[in-house]
Write a structure and sequence with these properties.
Layout (H helix, E strand, L loop, with lengths): L5 E2 L6 E9 L2 E8 L18 E7 L7 E8 L6 E3 L5 E5 L2 E10 L4 E8 L7 E2 L13 E4 L5 E5 L31 E5 L12 E3 L1 E2 L17 E8 L2 E7 L6 E6 L6 E8 L9 E6 L2 E8 L11 E7 L17
This protein binds beta-L-arabinofuranose (FUB).
């Protein structure tokens, strides 16, 4: 496969793909974009998604199979609106889906839903995860089996409402010269249903060892956190949101700190950029999305796949977000 992204589907809008290998296959857990008719704004109200489909692929060069609806908002008792980016982890014979949705007071929390199969259907727990907030959960499993959940997103993702450590209905960010708001990480509890410890900041440092600042909009965290491990190093990747880049930073353990290294994907057609990185049969793939197939409608996105390459020093070659296979 050449290093040019390829759309996976032309007949359904899907975004925010989180990919994992389960039972020797690639499984993809995206958002399911719909035409909601809600006007576009900075809180992302136009992303009014209502269910999740799950996809699988035997071969990254082949087709993706749509397994249909895995979880519907009507089956989540506490949900109000907006099912955004989800992820799935496996433990002890069960698959655990972590998903953000706004509650009936319009505040994002993370929910958990459980299934016997990666493709679902998933059954949601009656309440959100205790103490959970914001959006874009993803789960990393380390070589010793420990599971870490990463999450967070500013602006519409509401992370800024927790900048003092407790909820405040205030969407101001920190000042431009103050440290940026960082994604969050916590080990999951043994039963996979709760945070197993107090959440920590995923600190990203510049090459001088200083935390990235709020005003550093080309490098600071915005949303879509993801962790993968390559040759004993931990790669934390994320979207810079309003500057539309997918970036990465490297650390020595899942908590970081991580040192900023560069851009994985240049801006795509559309506003959001989001992703996951996964190894399958010895090659590494970036799953992401763009809005090309909807003619640039930011809320109607389509999943893509592209192989990524590492240089000898462990850096990742930047992919052109506009190139297509
Ligand atoms: O899909 C809704 C939101 O858009 C996601 O949660 C963000 O990461 C962005 O892709």
């Amino acid at each position: 496969m050449a290093n040019k992204p390829r759309h996976l589907f032309k007949d359904i809008y899907t975004a925010d793909p989180r990919a994992h290998v389960f039972n020797g296959k690639l499984y993809i857990f995206p958002s399911h974009d719909i035409e909601s008719g809600i006007p576009e704004d900075d809180t992302g109200a136009h992303f009014d998604m209502r269910d999740y489909h799950v996809y699988s692929m035997d071969d990254p060069d082949g087709i993706a199979i749509d397994h249909g609806v895995a979880l519907d908002i009507k089956d989540v008792p506490w949900a109000g609106r907006q099912m955004w980016s989800n992820d799935v982890a496996f433990k002890n014979g069960k698959y655990f889906m972590y998903f953000p949705v706004k509650d009936k007071l319009d505040i994002f929390h993370l929910g958990v839903a459980i299934s016997d199969k990666p493709e679902g259907p998933y059954k949601a727990l009656p309440d959100p995860m205790k103490g959970s907030f914001s959006i874009d959960p993803s789960v990393f499993t380390d070589d010793d089996g420990s599971k870490y959940i990463f999450w967070g997103g500013i602006w519409g993702g509401q992370l800024q409402r927790y900048k003092t450590g407790k909820y405040e209905n205030n969407d101001d960010l920190r000042k431009p010269d103050e440290p940026a708001l960082f994604a969050k990480v916590a080990k999951l509890s043994d039963d996979m249903l709760e945070f197993g410890e107090e959440p920590r900041d995923v600190v990203v440092l510049d090459s001088y060892g200083n935390p990235l600042k709020t005003g550093d909009e080309n490098r600071r965290f915005f949303e879509a956190p993801w962790l993968h491990k390559y040759k004993d190093k931990y790669y934390f990747s994320y979207s810079t949101g309003n500057t539309h880049l997918l970036c990465y930073a490297i650390g020595d353990n899942p908590y970081g700190p991580f040192i900023y290294k560069g851009v994985i994907l240049t801006p795509v057609v559309g506003w959001t950029t989001h992703h996951s990185i996964v190894e399958f049969k010895g090659k590494w793939y970036l799953f992401h999305h763009d809005s090309k197939l909807s003619g640039g409608k930011t809320w109607l996105r389509s999943m893509k796949i592209v192989e990524i390459s590492y240089r000898d020093d462990g850096s990742i070659e930047t992919i052109d977000g506009n190139a297509d296979e």
